[in-house]
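Many introductory courses stop at the sequence. We go one step further.
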Amino acid sequence: MKENWSGDSPRHEQDHAYEEWGYDTQFTRLLGSKGWNTMSWPREYGGQGRTPYEQLAFMEEIQQAGAPMGGRGDIQAHALMAFGTAEQQAEFLPKLARGEITFCLGYSEPGSGSDLASMQTTAERDGDEWVINGQKIWTTAAEKADYIWLAARTDRNAVRPHAGLSIFIVPMNSPGLTVRPSMAMYGHTFCQEFLDNVRVPASALVGKLNDGWTVLTSALATERMMMGSFIANARAEFERLVRCVRDKTVLANDGAVRDRIGALAAEVEAGRQLFMKSIAMAEQGKVPIHEAAMSKAFTGELTERLGQAALDILGTGATLSEDAESAIASGRFERLLRYAILTVIGGGTAEIQRNLIAQRGLGLPR
């Protein structure tokens, strides 16, 4: 970090803008050149095979320095390792490792955001190609991605709705694919994608035909596990809050403030342990369904509580945005509270996570 990052831009190119979502293409490629994009990958796929503790330590160091977390590709990389063909692995894994390509997720649709089994986007076979039609929504960073990891219905007559789904890798520059970004309240865009007779080769299918639910379930668990990794960001923001409190003697000596800070410290550590549990299971070849849901739900709501606590403790100055005069910590806490919306809703709402915990973790009925 001291050699390659300073403030909000890489030292190797100070005038390069820090892109949305804490992602920076040049910094990601720099990480890739040093092997840091693949620290969680198994060694047989060119990764470092690091332990959960090492992975969390790396994430926390990155967040403490205020640098981006690296490429958007762990979800697809792990799914390709498990379900991809040798040709897909050879084509995409090296590029993801080097930080040369990015993916977005094409799951949710208007009317089927949480109930993915009801999706209506279709993919029909036409010779050596698949023809895809439909609409996706709530897609993060689709306007900057190279590919969309797309779920589509390939069997309209499946007895069980989720049994007729398949996963495809679709280039974002495909003819017939239109992306429409919209600005969200937390300061970043989400996108809608319209697919009108989009054609992809037969080799774009990931996993078995009509078995996309298996791939999707694994990928969702990975996504929720990665969103659980936001605990590294929560810890960095918590440490920033502690520094602000220590700078004000009246706050540092306030028993109520110290009590709240202590409670948050315990919650941050609990979040770290939940995250490491999910990573450890994934390393053992298990799919952490309810464990990842626990990590994601806890971390998302902790981020909300952390932002609210900062505003309560630090007062009006913490409610000011980064460009405002007298903004505390350059507006980081005000931005954190808005950003918490993503951590609670993205990857499945907290209500969805609790359903998974109840049904898959506790064995409760629907």
